[in-house]
C-alpha cells in the first residue's frame, strides 16, 4: 500500500511542477493562454492529425482527470498543451491512456507540432524551443 501512495504522490508532484510563472525565454514568443483548463500541463507522446483536428495522447493513471488540451498557433509552429489534475481521494494506481482533441484555426500543414508541457519544462530550465519537444507526426 505504501508503494501505491508513493506512486500517486510522485505522479502528483510531477504533474504539479511546471516551473515558475513568468519564466519566459527571450527566444520564444510569450503567448498567454487565457482559456487554459484547470490542472497542470502533462507531456504527451502520440499525435494524429486530420486536417485542422489534432488528437494527442498521453499515459496517466486512473487517479487523474483529463481536462482537455489547448492549441496555440503561430505562423511557424503549433503548440498543443494537454491538462490533467489528480482526483482527490483514494484510488488504485492503474495506467490509463488519455486522448484529447483540439481544433486548429487552420490545418497543421507544414508547421511543426510541439508538446507545450515539454516546452514549459524547458522554459523553466532557460532553454528555447527544445527539439526534444517536437512531436510532428510522420507524414
Provide key terms for this protein:
139 residues; three-stranded antiparallel β-sheet
Round the Cα radius of gyration to an integer and report it.
15 Å
Order of helices and strands: HEEEEEEEH
Strand content: 25-35%
Which spans have pLDDT < 50 for at least 5 consecutive residues? 1-34
Q: Strand count, sense and closure of the main sheet?
A: 4 strands, mixed
Helix content: 10-25%
Structural class: alpha+beta
Number of domains: 1
Q: Given the structure, what is the number of helices?
A: 2
Q: Averaging pLDDT over every residue, what do you get?
A: 76
Work out the number of β strands.
7
Give the N-terminus to C-terminus distance in angstroms. 45 Å
Shape: globular
SSE layout:
Blueprint: H1 2-16, E1 40-42, E2 46-50, E3 53-61, E4 64-73, E5 78-86, E6 95-103, E7 113-115, H2 116-124
Amino acid at each position: 500500500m505504501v508503494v501505491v501512495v508513493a506512486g500517486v504522490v510522485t505522479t502528483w508532484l510531477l504533474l504539479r511542477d511546471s516551473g515558475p510563472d513568468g519564466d519566459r525565454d527571450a527566444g520564444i514568443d510569450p503567448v498567454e493562454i487565457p482559456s487554459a483548463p484547470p490542472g497542470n500541463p502533462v507531456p504527451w507522446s502520440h499525435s494524429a492529425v486530420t486536417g485542422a483536428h489534432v488528437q494527442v495522447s498521453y499515459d496517466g493513471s486512473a487517479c487523474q482527470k483529463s481536462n482537455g488540451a489547448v492549441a496555440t498557433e503561430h505562423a511557424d509552429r503549433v503548440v498543443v498543451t494537454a491538462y490533467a489534475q489528480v482526483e482527490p481521494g483514494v484510488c488504485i494506481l492503474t495506467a490509463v491512456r488519455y486522448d484529447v482533441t483540439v481544433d486548429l484555426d487552420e490545418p497543421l500543414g507544414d508547421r511543426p507540432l510541439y508538446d507545450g508541457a515539454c516546452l514549459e519544462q524547458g522554459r523553466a530550465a532557460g532553454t528555447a524551443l527544445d527539439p526534444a519537444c517536437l512531436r510532428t507526426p510522420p507524414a
